[in-house]
Design goal:
By secondary structure, the protein is mainly beta. It is built from one helix and 29 strands. The strands form seven sheets. Strands 20, 21, 22, 23 and 24 form a five-stranded antiparallel sheet that branches. It has a four-stranded antiparallel sheet with strand order 3-2-1-29, with no helix packed on it. The radius of gyration is 26 Å and the shape is globular.
């Protein structure tokens, strides 16, 4: 009986020694934060949320690995500075979630560190709509940010980024989208009658009457997407039917230079589809278009099954490449283009483009569950 009584004491001693030994060996983990993301070309994918914070996913263009995220408010829009070092977002912060006041802000982020630099309160008239590149833009000298409003009456808020405050609200009745001119405090906007209106403004906040273009597209038979590309001194708009309208904004108003029928003679009723439906590679002057077959009235947001590469100089279709249900596309601007596709289910795909093979694109990577509403991607090259 006495031997049995000794056993608990021995066990307790062993446990005590083991605990002491474990305590001596334990090295607590030291948490650190990287000062900046890994170098290299980035793909910024906007995951726009309508029920909570939106977020911008920063992915490596090389392998789609995650470099980090930064968070914004509800229904965010996104644009980048020319040097791609600064990101600007607009979004709403809902004080009562389901009702009550809304605070809209323009936020400025340092891309390298994924940190907010400042925020500027803007008009709560800010349009809460699906992500488009034409909803938030910077002027040519990046002194001002231009924000699309809708109540549903349309207007543009001009934000002085140097002074850090809005300076004007420019009414744009019947018109939508923001297309800054390549010089000066000037922008155009698309109008429902098939024309475009151009406005100029001053640092004081004063603005001109609209300068109207001639009608260049038909809103019933050939409407255009609000997504557009800046190609040097020209604005390039794409229609639902696959026509490219090239317009100069060198003068007081936009002026049509020419029109290119991309789908002419191509069987299968192909047409553009999606949100960010085009992407421009400046190094080769090649436009990529997201295309879907069997197009019909109302199919203009169908995901792309192919991406077409178009030489804007020769005005020829170079290549048709299969893609995976892309609702938005983006491309790097250098000599060795990389093409990216975003889908509504949060999948991002990466394609290697071969300039020697007429700019055909080949699938080279995929990452899933990047977000829930990934309809915009911007590259840092």
């Amino acid at each position: 009986m006495r031997a049995l009584g000794v056993i608990p004491g021995i066990v307790a001693s062993i446990l005590a020694i083991s605990v002491a030994h474990a305590a001596d060996d334990f090295v607590p983990e030291t948490l650190t934060v990287e000062k900046s993301i890994k170098p290299g070309t980035n793909l910024l994918v906007l995951d726009q949320n309508w029920k909570g914070p939106s977020r911008i996913n920063v992915l490596s263009a090389d392998d789609l690995s995650s470099k980090g995220i930064f968070s914004t408010g509800v229904v965010s829009q996104l644009t980048l500075s020319k040097d791609r070092k600064t990101a600007y977002t607009t979004s709403a912060y809902l004080k009562r979630i389901m009702y009550g006041p809304t605070e809209a802000v323009l936020q400025e982020f340092d891309v390298a560190t994924l940190t907010p630099k400042r925020e500027i309160v803007i008009s709560s008239k800010m349009a809460q709509v699906a992500p488009y590149t034409s909803q938030l833009r910077l002027t040519a000298d990046e002194h001002y940010a231009l924000v699309q409003n809708a109540t549903p009456a349309t207007s543009i808020t001009v934000v002085d980024l140097v002074a850090g405050k809005p300076i004007a609200e420019i009414p744009t009745p019947g018109c939508w989208g923001i297309y800054p001119a390549p010089q000066g405090e000037k922008f155009a906007t698309l109008c429902g009658d098939g024309t475009a209106a151009t406005f100029e403004f001053k640092p004081s906040g004063e603005f001109s009457a609209p300068a109207r273009s001639e009608k260049f597209f038909d809103t019933d038979s050939d409407p255009v997407y609000v997504h557009a590309e800046r190609v040097g001194e020209v604005l390039l708009f794409t229609s639902f039917n696959g026509n490219l309208y090239r317009l100069s904004d060198a003068g007081p108003a936009l002026k049509l230079k020419d029109k290119l029928a991309v789908t002419a003679g191509v069987p299968g009723h192909w047409a553009p589809g999606g949100f960010e439906i085009s992407a421009y590679n400046a190094a080769h002057d090649v436009l990529f278009l997201a295309m879907h077959p069997d197009a019909k009235e109302g199919s203009h947001k169908e995901p792309a099954k192919e991406v077409w590469a178009i030489d804007l100089k020769s005005k020829k279709l170079l290549a048709r490449s299969p893609v995976e249900k892309s609702i938005a596309i983006a491309v790097t601007g250098g000599a060795q283009p990389l093409l990216f596709g975003m889908s509504e289910d949060g999948t991002v795909t990466r394609y290697v483009v071969d300039p020697q093979g007429k700019f055909a694109a080949k699938l080279a990577g995929r990452v899933e569950k990047v977000g829930e509403f990934t309809l915009m991607g911007l590259t840092s090259e």
